[in-house]
Prior knowledge:
InterPro entries: Znf_SWIM (IPR007527). The chain is of the alpha+beta class. It has helices at 11-19, 30-42, 48-60, 94-103, 109-113, 119-125, 186-205, 207-215, and strands at residues 62-64, 70-72, 129-136, 141-148, 159-166, 171-176. The protein folds into 2 domains: 6-45, no CATH class; 75-215, no CATH class. Strands 3-4-5-6 form a 4-stranded antiparallel β-sheet. The chain has a two-stranded antiparallel ribbon with strand order 1-2.
Amino acid sequence: MAGIDKQSKSVAELKAFLRERGVNTSIHRKESLIRLAEAATEIQLEPEEVENYHSDRQNRRTIKTPDGKKVIIPDIFSISDWNNNLITLPTVEMGDIFVYLMTTCMWSNDRLKSYKNDNGYQLYMQRHVDNVVMRTLNTDHLYIKCSCTPETKQKEKPYTTWILMDNKASIKSGGCTCVADDSSCKHCVAVLFALHEFTDHIKTEGLKSALTHLASGTDQGRV
Ligand SMILES: [Zn+2]
């Protein structure tokens, strides 16, 4: 309703406009509601959902440095020097993934038990994850960024999906350009399983074999 003539809105619409910006009012007089709505627009009061989304995005990028300070790391889109040499990636164990799925993604026990049926795992199995690159952030955290082809619209532009972890492979958060964009969308889940496969390959078969495995995809960075 910002920039729209508030005179043309009904009392109910004006109240809804205010309510979604955290202003609950028992006022019914239209004139007063219009004044409030205009004031809300003037001070650029955003709908709470939008605010929560932004603060969630910021929380996902907040890490603790080794000396205990909280630092907000840059958004993945403001980083340009990505590295496609994934050999230094820490080994992502299945345990790391399960801890993340339980604590951050809030998966139920039943969902965990049948993780192989989950959409995220299926996307990984069907090789939707590609173009994996990494970026070390400080001494103990790193970003992983990749593309993930949408499940049903495979001809459409892939999503950009990211994971934030520390150098012991504790998964901190993730994000995605899909509409869900939270730490638990199926694309984030697919990336985690793909990272497990690749880093496990390095551990069990050695760097050379992992590189060959890596190169066996169509693009460098396929895992
Ligand atoms: Zn996603």
